[in-house]
Amino acid sequence: xxxxxxxxxxxxxxxxxxxxxxxxxxxxxxxxxxxxxxxxxxxxxxxxxxxxxxxxxxxxxxxxxxxxxxxxxxxxxxxxxxxxxxxxxxxxxxxxxxxxxxxxxxxxx
Amino acid sequence: xxxxxxxxxxxxxxxxxxxxxxxxxxxxxxxxxxxxxxxxxxxxxxxxxxxxxxxxxxxxxxxxxxxxxxxxxxxxxxxxxxxxxxxxxxxxxxxxxxxxxxxxxxxxxxxx
Lengths: 109, 112
Prior knowledge:
The complex is a heterodimer of chains A (109) and B (112).
Chain A: E1 9-13, E2 18-23, E3 33-38, E4 45-50, E5 55-56, E6 61-64, E7 70-75, E8 84-90, E9 103-108
Parallel strand pairs in A: 1-9
Antiparallel strand pairs in A: 2-7, 3-4, 3-8, 5-6, 6-7, 8-9
Chain B: E1 4-7, E2 10-13, E3 19-25, E4 31-38, E5 42-51, E6 54-57, E7 65-66, E8 76-78, E9 87-94, E10 102-103, E11 107-111
Parallel strand pairs in B: 2-11
Antiparallel strand pairs in B: 1-3, 3-8, 4-5, 4-9, 5-6, 7-8, 9-10, 9-11
């Protein structure tokens, strides 16, 4: 079973910030949180990852709560091309990644 | 260009006819992995490899084999394909450490 919980879908207006939540209440101390997205049936695209500090790159920001039980991916200025399914993943074991069903983000004009 | 290349992109085959889906990466990555994606079930890991000659089962390894004889290649082998292996398959690779995976473009397999 997936170790993360995400809402099945969200909408966001173009140009606004998209905030995608993820719950990972059973995360252990050395597990990282990763975010990927998948546009249509293309290969998933890595976005960002973090352990306990907030992270930012050219694509997005990742906010992890102090207790690490949840996180939020922020797309600061969503565009139509950001419409995709977003996956929040906690790395377990070595490389045994478990993808959940993700959040389908729809960006509308 | 850094990439993961899968071949073929599309394949229709018959039950029981052995097939291999190739995966190659040009980034000198240690880790490679295979996933299948089915409607309503999301992405499920089939096998992964942490380096040459080191492989391990993911969540749905039944009916599949893999090998990692060279660092760049990680083929997925279906010895006797069945219709329930009709799916969209993705190969991915990453470097050692905490970085994210780079995924291939996918192989859509249909077994009739």
